[in-house]
Each structure stands twice: as C-alpha cells, then as structure tokens.
Amino acid sequence: MEKSDKIFVAGHRGLVGSAIVRRLEGEGFTNLLKRDRAELDLTQERPVAEFFAMERPDVVVLAAAKVGGIKANNDFPVEFLLDNLQVQNNVITSAHATGVRKLLFLGSSCIYPKHAPQPIPEEALLTGPLEPTNDAYAIAKIAGIKLCQAYASEYGETYISAMPTNLYGPNDNFDLLSSHVLPALLRKAHEAKISGASELMVWGSGDPRREFLHVDDMADACVFLLKNYDSPEIVNVGCGEDISIRQLAELICDVIGFEGELTFDATKPDGTPRKLLDVRKLNGLGWRPKIALREGIASTYQWFLEHELEAAAPAR
Ligand code: GFB
User: Cα dist. 38→1, 13, 42, 56, 240 in Å?
Assistant: First the structure.
C-alpha cells in the first residue's frame, strides 16, 4: 500500500473502523475517505454505486456492519441479516465495478459452528450448525466471505477476509441492552461503584468462555493483512487466550474498584459455550497482539470516563 492510496474505511465511526482510521492516520496515510450514515447510507445500492464511481478508491476496508451483543442479535434477526447483506453486497459489488485494488472484509468469530473444535481453526467454517442466538448475523457474514471468495476466483480480485474474535475498546457501544459483554460489565461495575450498590448482575451462568482482543490490536492486524496478505482464504484474528464470563466480571470489578458481589441472571442466554480462535495462521504470518486484557480494560475504562460519563450516570 502507498501512503497516498485513497482508502475508503466504511464504518469509520464504529469500534473497528475508528481504530483503523487512527492506525492508518498515525502511519501517515493521508488520503482516507470517510462518510457517515447521513452522508452515505450503505444499505442503499444506488448512492453507494454513485459514490464509488465518483471517488474511485484504491483500497476498501469494509468495517461497516450492524453489530450488537447477544440480546440484540437474538431480538432483531431481520436487521442483523438484511442490513449486513445489503451493506456488504453494495460495497463489494461497487468495489468490483470501479476497479478497487484491494478490499478487506471483516467477519466475526460467530461464523463458526456452535460446537466447533477449540481453538477454532479457519477450516471449521460450515462444518456444523450455528449458535442460534446469532445465526442471522453469522449467515450474513458467511455470505460476505463467500462473495469475496467468488470475486477472487471468478474475476481475480484481491478481496481478503479477517475473522475477529470479541473486540472491545474506545468507541464501543456501552448501551446495556444492545452492547457486548465487556462494555456492558464495565458500565455496570462503574455504576455499581458510584451508587454504592452491593451487587452486580451478570447475564447467564458466567460459565461461557470468550476471547477478548483490544480494537487497537485488531486495527494493527488489519493494516498488517492489507500490507502482507492477498489470499481469499479467511484469517482468524485473536489473542489466543480466553476466560470465562465470571472471570471477566471479576477482572473488570477489580480494575474499576467495585467490591460487591456478582449475581447471575439465569433467564438470560449463555450463547456459544466457548469461542476461542486458532490464531496459528496469523501468528505464522508474523503478527501478534500487544495489549494485555487488564491493561486494555483499564484504558477502555479511562476512555469511558472521558467520553460516556453522562450516559453512564445512574438515573436519579
Ligand atoms: O458479548 P455478548 O453479548 O455476545 O455475550 P456473544 C457474551 C456472554 O456474556 C454471553 C454474557 O454468555 C452473555 O450472556 N453476559 C453476561 C453479558 N453479562 C452480560 C451483559 O451485561 N451484557 C451482555 N451483552 N452479555 C456475540 C454475537 O456473541 O459476539 C455477535 O451475538 C458477535 O454476533 C459477537 O459475533 C462477537 O459473544 O455471545
């Protein structure tokens, strides 16, 4: 990639897109294209085609997606399936129509079967049934992978796909109903601490295991792949270690300084029992993460205090 390349980061305000923009700008890429939703609705075919025809980006990072935690995925399967299919179809077909040189599609670890072997190798894709709480999102992401691979085999396009594990960091969604577990517990622990509560409610049994990667490491991996990887075969991106949700809650409480009890709400779903990615392929290419979980939670908490405090103040 050249520093002058015109790079369209679709979804530049989101958790991943904003981290990729920080990373690229920090490295001296000066020609980034960004459009927020009001300027360009990626679910609409025609405006997307016109935008590409006019701007003709060299490189595209497809980080725009409808995302959410276990409850949002479970409650809104239509939106998770349809919005994601529309966005990725529009962006990928327009990239092809206008000669984009390289495209990075971002998937998710939930594309793998519910009972995939652990750690999950890339080859586990489509070898078994999906986890029902997020199968709509997973099917959309699998369709995106397949579309990129189809463009590669039929037209020789360099469209690559990365499968991140559970991500967290600045610009995450801290809304308790729609967020992922880490920002939700971070906010709950903060509110419990400042209100002097004696308990913090964790959804589910606390037994599921998840792998967490700081989004700055994810952005680093994306830029690494843009520079060093051209194959249509998918690549997992993770840190290689997982912890239980109970352990995560304990760690977050420790970092934030909430000393009350954890309680578990068994009416909420556990989802996939375990989701640890096999990252030997990415490690073999020469990439490793740098941010330890405790350190990442502490810096994300600082960001939360500086940017989300108003939203986090308990209702009075
Ligand atoms: O992060 P999360 O919402 O999604 O939940 P998934 C992970 C685990 O944390 C589940 C538990 O077992 C939740 O029940 N959990 C405990 C909580 N307390 C909370 C809480 O306060 N909020 C939330 N949200 N969870 C998502 C998929 O699955 O992973 C997406 O739905 C995507 O499609 C994403 O793939 C990476 O890890 O289960």
Answer: 29, 12, 10, 20, 38
Task: State if pTM tops 0.70.
Answer: yes
Which of 76, 81, 180 has the most ligand 1 atoms within 8 A of CB, as the residue to mutate?
Answer: 180
Task: Report whether residue 166 contacts ligand 1, using a CB cutoff of 6 Å.
Answer: yes
| Nearest residue (CA) to ligand 1, atom 15 | 203
* CATH code reported for the domain at 7-312: 3.40.50.720
Distance 7 CA to ligand 1 centre (A): 31
Q: Where are the beta strands (DSSP E) in 29-76?
A: 32-33, 59-62
* Residue ranges per structural domain of the chain: 7-312
Is 159 among the residues known to form the active site?
A: no
Residue matched to tokens 């509110």: 191
CB of 171 closer than 8 Å to CB of 235: no
Q: Which of 137, 159, 229, 301 is catalytic?
A: 137
Give me the tens of pLDDT residue by residue for the chain, a chain 316 residues long.
Answer: 999 999 999 999 999 999 999 999 999 999 999 999 999 999 999 999 999 999 999 999 999 999 999 999 999 999 999 999 999 999 999 999 999 999 999 999 999 999 999 999 999 999 999 999 999 999 999 999 999 999 999 999 999 999 999 999 999 999 999 999 999 999 999 999 999 999 999 999 999 999 999 999 999 999 999 999 999 999 999 999 999 999 999 999 999 999 999 999 999 999 999 999 999 999 999 999 999 999 999 999 999 999 987 654 554 4
What is the Cα Rg of the chain in Å? 19
Exposure letters 272-292 (e unless 16+ CB within 10 A, then b)? bebbbbbbebbeeeebebebe
**DSSP helix/strand/coil, 119:** coil
Cβ of 164 less than 6 Å from ligand 1: no
As to burial, measured by CB atoms within 10 angstroms (0-12 exposed, 13-18 middle, 19+ buried), residue 90 is buried
